[in-house]
Amino acid sequence: MIYKDIKMKDVLFNNHILLSVIERFGINLGLHEKTVEEICKENNINLEVFLTILNLHINNKYKPLQIYNCDYIIAIIQYLQKSHQYYINEIYPNINYNIQLMHEANNSSEILMVENFFKEYTTEVDQHFNYENDIVFPYITNLFDRIKHKQNVDKSNNYSVNIYKEHHDDIEGKLDDLIKLLIQHIPQKNDRKIRRKILFDLFDLEQDLNIHAKIENEILIPIVERMEIKFKNR
Amino acid sequence: MKIIYNILIIEPSIIIQEGLSNIIKSVNNNIVVTVTDSLSDCCKFNTIDFNIVLLNPILLNNCSITFNKFTTQFNKSHLLGIISTIYNRNFYCQFNDYIYINDNKELIKNTILKFLTIKNKKKNISENILSKRETDVLKLLAQGKSNKEIAEALFISIHTVVTHRKNIGRKLDVKSSAAMAIYAVANNIIDINDSLK
């Protein structure tokens, strides 16, 4: 469990996986002896949201605090958007590149198919993220602004978080298929090192996406549902 | 290769635990016995495939929900009741067999031996290999054919095609048709040129 008084460097020594998470919060390394709280203050980060997300990443049994305060919503959305950028700009291109290298090493039909499989998967993920970036997040930000400024309901917009909830399909299924293919079903030929690299990246990504979905389903959606009720009852 | 049999005893009385454990170990040398005195500890053993699990129903506190949880957790093992007193009859019918605490040594050994020789309920490897019919379905599936087209080509109903697809997915442990097609090519079930048609 990570608390606000723990030194940030110790958090990372014990959980190196969090390196990419703190990066998404805009924290630079060279942490010296600063505590989590100090780092958050320095970088203008919401401490509660930061702690919740960090703890979710290191403990899969961690139950997010009931941070049903709509003031947190913007910080959460920012993190989710940063994560989208991280996946799209860095992780997916990197895996894609490595799959190409794997194809060079093991020039078989099945690896070519894996290459296409991953491309199709990336396109699906793109659509999924775009929907959130273009429709869901602006809707929530707008709702938040209206509540904050005590404005009235925007009658032209029939959108509600329920629609999002119903559309929110998982993007981990195909990733899992890919892992199964590479471990169970496709014989190894000349591609040991690169396949291992790809698998490490896929497992990391799968874990990260699981947490990402957890933040959306267990934190974001419940807060927005409450905001909607609050807004309607005004 | 030596086959190891894993047996779990869940029994609150230390005397019964130790006695039973010793008798079971004397059946043969390949038995590993794990002992616990409470049901709540069972989750620790999730990762081990036990061939036989022995449970004293006294630990269920007459609660059928607890019992259902228990049978679900160990649905791949043979379940034997350790009978030390009188219980609700509902708890009897779900065990595969019983060991009574006044059974003699030979009887206990025979009961254990009987369940060691019966194959474990868990899936064996051959079940993971596709049947002839599933392979036929997979071939067409990998060529991008729809359920309807597959049904017509193989003279079976669409419903049967769907069932075969489900079973293929379960056996290969993948969900998407695209992944199934890659499996088919990687394992020489079809040629890549067929899959691209």
Short structural summary:
With 234 residues, chain A is mainly α. Chain A contains nine helices and no strands. Chains A and B meet through helix 6 and helix 8 of A and helix 8 of B.
State the share of residues found in helices of chain A, binned by percent.
Answer: over 70%
End-to-end distance of chain B: 46 Å
Assembly state (oligomeric)? heterodimer
Largest sheet of chain B: 5 strands, parallel
Q: Uncertain regions of chain B: pLDDT < 50 for 5+ in a row? A: 122-126
Tell me what portion of residues of chain B adopts beta-strand conformation.
5-15%
Instruction: Report the helical percentage of chain B.
Output: 40-55%
Which chain pair shows the most residues in contact? A-B, 19 and 15 residues
What is the radius of gyration of chain B computed over CA atoms, rounded to a whole number of angstroms? 23 Å
**Total of DSSP H or I helical runs spanning 4+ residues of chain A:** 9
Spatial shape of chain B:
elongated
- Sheet with the most strands of chain A? none
How many strands in all of chain A?
A: 0
Q: What's the average pLDDT of chain B?
A: 85
